[in-house]
Amino acid sequence: MASSNKSDRRNAVDKIRRDQKRADQRQGRIIVGVCVLVAAVIIGIAAFKPVTDWWALRSLSDKSLAQIGEGAKACQPRVIKAATGVQDHVQPGVEVKYADTPPAFGQHEVAPDSITRKLYTEKDRPRVEMLVHNLEHGYTILWYDETIADDKDQMRELRAIADKLQGEDDYRMKFKAVPWLKADGKAFPKGQHVAFSHWAKTAAEEDAKIAAAAKVTDSAGVWTYCSGVSGAALKDFMATYPYLNSPEPTAG
């Protein structure tokens, strides 16, 4: 009888152990499942923006540069001003006070930004002083303000424009789109949220009257201000002031 009682107790203990083991296994599977689900959500969130950006750009991929954004009427007539600062370098980190918003010429850092990157945001934009060196080398820079940065549709158009102007070997693609920040200086003229700037060796023939009125006879800073993103206006600006019309066009 005593032996039977011991056997019953042992069986009961074994059952408790088996039940606990199964419960532990179920809990482990639940924890693993939750971890997998959380990881999937994190990966999905990380992948969501690149995927949506790619999908949004598909609608613009078949459009020409001139068809992206608003028409050229969104932009004002060009502004021209006598330029100075050719080969006037400062060391990295030195702050230069530019009189114009945004600058088209002036003192600049000893090295320009690489041609590789076409579009920047506030988080990773090079210093203005570095970008002015790019202007000396014939780049056209599209500067955009906070209004554009906060507008997902216009940022999509900027990404599409930057995609159209990709290229490292073709200097006709000397282009960058960068944000103009409040810390950089004064705001653009009222109602204008985009500015093109170029450092020209000479004013273009079609701008002779503007240059004469501004008493520009040599190197010139050139601007166009726009109320929004306009691929048509940018195309015309870059055709009128190509990279070759700059103080140092053959430099990268």
Note the topology.
Blueprint (H helix, E strand, L loop, with lengths): L1 H57 L20 E4 L6 E2 L17 E2 L18 H9 L3 E5 L1 H4 L2 H13 L10 E5 L14 E7 L7 H6 L6 E7 L4 H10 L12
Parallel strand pairs: 2-3, 4-5
Antiparallel strand pairs: 1-7, 4-6, 6-7
Model description:
There is one protein chain. Helices cover 39% and strands 13% of the residues. The chain contains six helices and seven strands; from the N terminus they run H-E-E-E-H-E-H-H-E-E-H-E-H. About 5% of the residues have low confidence. A five-stranded mixed sheet has the order 1-7-6-4-5. The longest helix is centred in the first third of the chain and has 57 residues. It is of the alpha/beta class and 252 residues long. It has two domains: 58 residues; 175 residues, no CATH class.
